[in-house]
Specification:
By secondary structure, the protein is mostly helical. It has 8 helices and no strands. Helix 4 runs antiparallel to helix 6 and helix 6 runs antiparallel to helix 7. The radius of gyration is 18 Å and the shape is elongated. The relative contact order is 0.15.
Length: 164
């Protein structure tokens, strides 16, 4: 990992990211907003599954908010890669960052599985209380994973673990 961090730090694009004083704060801002986008969309779908919101059916709610999840994930990926390239030592050598990546992989997998299950069972989740209860557990697990990504990925936590 050390060699990878050193190699990334030596790239011209990495040096360019570090020399633009405004870029990293802007990227971090968009990264945080993208995370909020994902969390908000997951919560909106979950609220409907849990029966706390009745304004739409489960499939309608999913169709409305799932694009926000996938758009947020694209933004998270793009900003995350640029931040990683700009400060590879800060991220790659940090155990917290590695844990965040592991939890994020689990969260993305769970979100994808949840998306597929919603497409196949969304109407059933609206009518059958037993199916809704099981879907609610699945929804809660997905939300917990995204909350864990957020908690582990807190910028100050990562920044304070490694001296500059």
């Amino acid at each position: 990992m050390v060699e990878l961090a050193q190699w990334l730090a030596s790239l011209p694009v990495s040096r360019a990211v570090r020399t633009m004083a405004w870029l990293i704060p802007w990227l971090q801002t968009f990264h945080i907003l993208a995370n909020a986008m994902v969390l908000s969309a997951v919560i909106m779908i979950d609220l409907r599954i849990w029966g706390l919101s009745q304004s739409q059916t489960v499939p309608e709610r999913a169709r409305r908010f799932q694009p926000w999840i996938w758009t947020g994930l694209v933004l998270l990926t793009v900003t995350g890669i640029v931040l990683l390239v700009g400060e590879p030592r800060r991220s790659l050598l940090n155990g917290t960052f590695q844990l965040k990546m592991l939890i994020m992989a689990l969260a993305i997998t769970a979100t994808l599985a949840f998306h597929i299950a919603l497409q196949q069972n969304g109407k059933l989740w609206d009518g059958d209380p037993d199916a809704r209860w099981k879907a609610g557990i699945f929804a809660a697990a997905t939300l917990v994973l995204w909350l864990a990504v957020t908690a582990v990925g807190r910028g100050r936590w990562i920044a304070n673990l490694l001296p500059r």
